[in-house]
Amino acid sequence: MSPPSHIPPLRLGYKASAEQFAPPDLLAFGLAAERLGLDSVAISDHFQPFRHVGGHSPASLPWLGALAVQTSRVLIGTSVLTPTYRYHPSVVAQAFATLGCLAPGRIFLGLGAGEAMNEVAPTGADWPGSGERLERLREAVSLIRELWTYDRVHFEGTWYRTRGATIYDKPPQPIPIWIAAGGPKGARFAGAQGGLITTSGKPRELYAERLLPNAAAGAVEAGADPEGIERMIEIKLSYATDRATAVADCRFWAPLALPAEAKQGVDDPRELARLADELDDEQAASRFICTGDPDEAVERIAPYLELGFRHLVFHSPANDQRAFLERFSAEIAPRLRALNLA
User: Fold this and answer.
1) Which residue from 85, 91, 199, 230 could staple onto 195, CB 3.0 to 4.6 Å apart?
2) Residues forming a β-bridge with 311
3) Neighbouring residues of 259: CB distance < 8 A, sequence distance ≥ 6
4) CB distance 314 to 13 below 8 Å
5) CB atoms near residue 214 (< 10 Å)
6) What share of the chain is helix, strand, coil (3-state, %, to 5)?
């Protein structure tokens, strides 16, 4: 039985981990994701990786352009980009309008309020609290939408201004904007914009009681159908031949297991790596589903579908991403799609 037509279809996507792989390898993985039948490819937008030694941080915008012209079907975009410090919102609007011309109907813009590690180093900015960062994000989104809609934009905001700005090559089809949120205010804004992005591995109450209800409320306030908004979640899945290997594969991504208060304001990847390396292997892997059993993987992913997430983007920490993509597409994706139709 298929879900009602007003509910977005189930999408299974691939997270291109820019912090871990060099640009050519990352592009090959994105192309493989389309070839193997996945529905989307999302890339992170870090200026600095989580690790100073062994990390990468390719620019997402040219990489997405390369992926756009070499694919024909997958939906592609940022799994979160911050349009408020490194980028002026006008630059983001122009870049994504160009992507929209290269791949009409296949581009999404995932936005977030940012992390100090990515915004402080290249700008020298003082890092404000979460309230100001969210207000900057709201203003940036308003400007981006105006530039995509109107011919000449005179914008007078608190943080951003334009004077007769024009994007001549506007996207031929609308580009959805989805917002990454970790709390109720951000989720409400995300719902009003049409889509919520979050990550897995956190307490169920966060999704069930704080994020999803507030996203729905934001959609209602904006006059939209709350059932029709995008609900994207990045599923952290370490899927290997056995659990021990799956746990070991997570070591590079140990910074994800640090509590938010430990990372707040950290703008040096060397310090972030030092903090993460103090964790033991099980702690380092705590944000990931670690298994070698496809049925167990589906059992642990299913609760996110039950919560109402319709776009699952899978992040594997493995060094061999091709092997992960092939095994995932053959062994887990069919089970998830069958579960969705049951």
Assistant:
1) 230
2) 11, 232
3) none
4) yes
5) 21
6) 50, 15, 35
Q: Which residue has the tokens 């100001």?
A: 132
Residue-wise pLDDT tens for the chain (342 aa)? 344 445 678 999 999 999 999 999 999 999 999 999 999 999 999 998 777 777 888 999 999 999 999 999 999 999 999 999 999 999 999 999 999 999 999 999 999 999 888 899 899 999 999 999 999 999 999 999 999 999 999 999 999 999 999 999 999 999 999 999 999 999 999 999 999 999 999 999 999 999 999 999 999 999 999 999 999 999 999 999 999 999 999 988 888 878 777 767 677 878 888 887 878 888 888 999 999 999 999 999 999 999 999 999 999 999 999 999 999 999 999 999 998 765
Integer Cα distance of 203 and 81 in angstroms: 24
CA distance 65 to 99: 6
Q: N- to C-terminal Cα distance for the chain? A: 6
The DSSP bridge partners found for residue 291 are 239
In one-letter notation, the amino acid at residue 154 is H
Distance CA 293, CA 307 (A): 23
The pair of structure tokens assigned to 97 is 């309008």
CA distance 28 to 304: 29
SS (H, E, C) 47-93: CCCCCCCCCCCCCHHHHHHHHHHHCCCCEEEEEEECCCCCCCHHHHH
Q: Which amino acid is at 240?
A: A
Structure tokens at 183: 């709390």
**CA 267/CA 269 separation, integer angstroms:** 7
- Integer angstrom CA distances of residue 140 from 18, 85, 184, 321, 329: 24, 10, 19, 34, 37
b (16+ CB within 10 A) / e for 230-255: bbbbbbbbbbbeeeeebbbbbebbbb
Pairing of strands 153-156, 161-165: antiparallel
